[in-house]
Structures are given as C-alpha cells and as structure tokens.
Amino acid sequence: MEILIFLLIIGAFLLIALGLVMAQGQTIGMKHAAGGLSKESRLEMQVSSLARIFPFTRAFLEKTGLDIKLKSKIDAAHVGISAQAFFNIKLLIMASGCVIAIALTQKFDPLVILAVLVAGYFIPDIYLKGKITKRKKEIVRVLPETVDLLGLCIEAGLDFTNAVKWVIEKTPANPMMEELAFILEEIKWGKSRIQALKDMSRRLDIPGISSFVQTIIQAERMGTPVADAFTILSEDARAQRFHRGERIALQAPIKILLPLIFFIMPVIGIVIGGPILLQFMTGGITAAIK
Length: 290
Description:
This protein is an all-alpha fold. Helices cover 86% and strands 0% of the residues. It is built from 12 helices and no strands. Helix 2 packs across helix 5 (83-105), helix 6 crosses helix 7 and helix 10 (207-222) runs antiparallel to helix 11. It is flat, with a radius of gyration of 28 Å. 17% of the residues are buried.
C-alpha cells in the first residue's frame, strides 16, 4: 500500500510538470501560428518552461556555485539551455527513473532507488561531456584550414573582423564557425576583441585554440603582421595534427590485443584443437594419433 501511495505521489508530480511543459508548448504553438514568434523566441520560451518546473533549484544552484560550473559546460557544448533548466532535466530523469524502477520491481528497494538516482543524475552530464568531446575533435580537425583562410583574407586587405565574417559566410557550418560567429556577436555587444578571444580559449580549453588566440594577441601587441603569424600557426597546427595521427596509429596494435586474446585466439584454439579433443574423448589416444 505504501508503494502504491508513493507511486501515485510521484506520478502526480510528474504529470503536473508535464502539464506545465505542454501548456507552455501550446502557447508557443499558438503564437507561432499567428506569426508572432521566431525560432529563437520559441527556444527561449521552451527553456524558460523547463526552468519553471522546479523554481527552487535556482537558489540552490546559486548558493552551491553549481550554476557557474554547469553554465561553463553548457557553453562549451553549445547547448541552448540554461543551467537551471539543465538541472531540472536531471531531477525529472531521476524521478521518472524511480517510478519506473518501483513499477518494474514491485517493491521499494533502497539500493535500486539509489542506483537509479545516481544514474539519473549523471546521465545528462555524460551526454554533455560526449557533446563537448565531439565538438573539440571537430574544432581541432578544421582549425588549420580555418587559420589558412583567415590568413589569406588578411593578406588580401581585410581586417580581422571582416575576415572572420567572410570565412563564416563561405565555409560550411561546423563548430569552429559557430565559435567565431559567437565572437562576432560578443564584439557587437561591446566586448573587446581580445577579451572575446580569451573567453573562447577558456571556454573550449583546447591547446590549438589557445595558441591561435595567443598568436593574435601577441601580434597585436608587438605590431607584427597578423598574416605572417597565421602562416606559422597554420604550419604548427598541421604538424600537431600529423603527430596526433601518428600517436593514434601507434596505439592501434595495443588496442587490438584485447579482442585478439579474448575473441580471436579462443576461436582459433577451438577450430584447431576441437577435432583432436573429440578423438581423444571417443577413440582414445591411439585413434587420435592414427
């Protein structure tokens, strides 16, 4: 009976949260049908509806300092969501997981509930970490070509801001272009170019990007041509990418040892030794030798 009451309480709580989200979504849809909202406005309203599900989490995040850490991760992953909304998604996953676990096991097991709570808390973090890693790999991959294009634009007579605009317009969309576009937006908002570049370097935490930013800053401070600095930086980026490929190639024989030992070698042993073992078991040693 206690389990049923607990399930009803959690279920009612989740239905209320779902109702709030659906009501907000219907409002957004009606306004969009009337032509009153853009895509960005709809996204902001959906995020705000997630943030309003658990209003108390904002004060908790601010007191514990988790909002700053979550915001830095969210910015690095380039996910259009606030820290409070992301934390509310964690709570929803934890509550839903508890309801599903109790419904499946038909009992309130503290160990199972604890495991579900821990998994529900860390699953969004794992997703965010995977997205950050994927973005970093893509940025590192396209960095040399981006630096080459910026250098060519500056050699043609464009300043840094116009060169970045031209590269963004002519290059297919990728995470590096998104970061450069965000830098331009920050410059429009009043932030200095050097500070915007430093914020990008701190947000991404990639050695290649840090070298890229440091090269631009040093070139401006020392008065050296930025195009020459970009040429050197592009060569260094290509050399680092080549060395990184060599390291990955050297790791391949080590990584293949585990499947070789645990999957391939047993099969070979069964194919070669299986008939001999069967003859030993059926006809004895003499028949096996003959």
